[in-house]
User: Fold these one by one.
Assistant:
Number 1:
Amino acid sequence: MAATINKNGALAGKVAVVTGASRGIGEAIALRYAQEGAKVVVSARTVEEGDHILPGSINSVVKRIKDAGGEAAAVKADLGNAADRENLIKETEKAFGPVDILVNNAAVTYFIPVEDFPEKRLKLMFEVQVFGPMHLAQLTIPKMRERGGGWILNISSHAALHPQLDAAGRGGTVYGMCKAALERFTTGLAAELHQDKIGVNVISPGLIATPGVVHHGLINESNKDRAVPVENMAEACLRLVYGDPAELSGRITYADVMLKEFNLKPAELIA
C-alpha cells in the first residue's frame, strides 16, 4: 500500500519548519511530518533541481507533498544569514501561522584538519549549525509560549562524541565541535523551557546514505553494512515532536534508540 497523507495524524493542524530540507534527512523529515497532517515549510538554499551539484530542491519536496494531498510551502533561506532566518519565520507565519515545530537540520561542513582550517569557514559552520538554531529558537519561542507549548528538534551527529586517540582523522574536528555545542544548547534550552511545555530534543541519525554523506565519501567498505534507511531517522524525528513535553524533553538520543524504546516501525515515505 502506497504512503499517503493522514490529515488527522499525530501532527494534524501543526505548523512545522524544517531547515536543510531540500534532500537527505531534512527532506525525509518534511515528508514524514506532512504524512501526519502537519503544514510543513520546507527550507534550504536549493530552490530548483540543478541549482546544486547534489540532487534535490525545496520546490520538488513541496511538490511531492502537495501531489499527495498535503500542505507545504517552500522558503529559500541561507541559515548563515540572520535576515534569511528572520524572513523564514515571517514567511511561515504568513503562509500557515505561528510555528509549532522547529527542526534545525541545516548544515554546512568542511572536512579540513585544524592546522589548516580557515577562520572564515570556521565562523560559517558555527553560524549555520550553532547560532542559526539558537536564533530560530529565539524567533519562535515567544509564540510557542503564548499558545501553551511547542517542540524544537535539533539534528546532531555521532561526530559530537569524543574520538579515540587512535581513530583515523578525517578533518572532522570542527564539525564535531559544532554538534557538541548544539547538544549542550539543546539540554540547556530544554531546562529553560520545561515549565512552558516546550519540548527540546537533539537526535543523531547513525549512518545514512544521504547525498551529502555519499558526496563526502563517508560510506566505505568498512562501514557500509551499518548504513540504515533514512526512513528510520524520519520516524524517530516524528516521535520527538508530539506527546507530553514534560516526559519527552532534554534528550540527547539516536534514531536506533528511539525506534527500540517506542517500538516504532518506520513508515514508507510518500513518492
Note: Helices lie at 24-35, 58-67, 82-95, 119-146, 173-193, 211-215, 230-239, 255-261.
Number 2:
Amino acid sequence: MGFWKLSAMEELVEAMAKAVKAREALPRMPDNLDLERAYAIQRTLVGVVAEGAIAGLKAGMTAAAGQKQFGLTHPLIGSLYESGRLSPGTDLAAATGVSLECEIGVVIDGAGNPKSAGPVIEVPRMAWGDPADATGVNLTACNIAADRFIVGTQKPFRSDYADIHITLTRDGETVCQAPATDALGGPHDALAWMLDEASLRGLEIRDDMLLITGACGGIHPALPGAYRADYGELGSIEFTVKP
C-alpha cells in the first residue's frame, strides 16, 4: 500500500463494513486513493462483510454516462454478498441511496462457462457520508454499492439474447424499457468481460456463482410502489417497495 499505513486501511475498512452492514452512511473516504488501492480495499471489505459467503460477482458502471459522472473510462467489478440474496415477491423499504437496476444474472460453472441465465433486480445502496466522495475510485472501494439483489427463475443459457426486452413498471406505470443487450453488449460479451476482469483483479470463480452483468435501462430510485420487471421469455420478477 506504499505510504498508506496498513492500520489506516484497517480502520477505514472497519468503519466501512460497519456502515454497509447497518445500511448507514459511509465514512469519509481518504484523498489519496487510486484504482489499485481501491480494489485492495474492496477485497478486504468484502471479506469482512461477507465472512466467506459470496454469492457471485457484479458488473458496475457499464454505461458511458455513469462512467463520465464518476470520472471513469471503464466498467467496474465487485462481489455479491450472499446475505443480500432475495426472492421474488419480497418487500423492500424505501431509503436514501437505495436504487433499482434490471439485470441479467448468469450462473456459471467452476471454469466460468455459463450454465443458465435469468432476471435479477439489483438493489444497490449508495450512501456517501460526504457527497464529494462520489468518485469512481471510492465507488470501487465500497464494492460498487453492493447490497441486495432479487433473483428470478434461471433458464438454460441461450445462444442469443437480442430478442429479449425488459420492461420495469411501478404501479402499472413504465419506469424503463431496454434490451437485454443494453449492458456491455449483452450476457455473452458481459460474461467474457467479467471473467477477464475477475482474473485481473484476483477474484475467485466458483461453480454455481451468480454473475450479474450490469444495468439494462439505467439506475432508478427505489420509490414506494408495486413493481413488475417483465423479461419476456426469460420470465418476470414482482416485488414491493414500501414507504
Note: The longest helix spans residues 6-22.
Number 3:
Amino acid sequence: MNPSLDKDVICATFRKEGKVRVKNFLNRDDAGKLLLCLHNDIAYNLTLVSNDKYQSYTEAQWRDMEANKKNTLNHEVMTNAAKGIGFVYGRHAVKADESNELLRSFYDWINSEAVLAWARDVSGFNEIKAASVQATRFMPGEFLTRHQDKVDSEGRKLAFVVNLPPSWHPDWGGLLQFYQTDGTPTESWSPEFNSLSLFDVKHIHSVTYVAPFALQPRYAISGWFTT
C-alpha cells in the first residue's frame, strides 16, 4: 500500500458516504507488475448467467463451443441484460493456493492483519476477518448489470476494486456506476490505473457496457472483505 495515503481523509469520506475512491493506492511499481500479470499470465473463465444460473467456461470451452449454442447463449445474455439482469466478463478466482506467485502474494497481503485492520478502521466494520479475491477482465461488449453485493452466506461487508487499466477513456464504458434504489444513476467512477474503489456492499451498482471501440481490456483485482 502507498505509505503516503491520508488515512484520516479516506476514513472521513467513507464514514460520510459509505464509499470512497483512493488514487495511487499501491506502490506504482507493484501496480504495474499486477497489470502485466493479469494481461500476460492469467487464464480467465467467461462467466455469465444462463437459465437463471451462474455459468463459467474456460477459454478453450468457449472457443470450441458449437456456433449454434454460442449464439443461443449470447442471445440469452443480451435479452436478460435488456431487462437489467445478468453479466458477462472474464474471471479468475484467487485462492490461498493460487499457482501464480504474484497473485498469491496479493491474496496473502490483503488477508494480512495489517490490511484487514486498515479496512476495519476505514469502514467501521469491526467484524471484518478476511478478504475474498478475484481477477477480472472486461472485454469490449462485456458488462455487469445493476445489483448489490450483499450475500449473507458469504459474510460480505465491504467491496473493493483495485483498478489496473494503464490508461482508460471514460467514453469506453466500464464505469463503476452507482444508483439510487429507484434506479436513478448517481455517481460514476472510471477505472483509473492504481485506484481503489471501496464501498459498502449495500450500494446498488453496475459495471457499464465496455464499448466496441475500447482499445484495451478493463483489468482489475476485486473482491470483498468478509466476516
Note: The chain has one domain: 7-42+94-226.
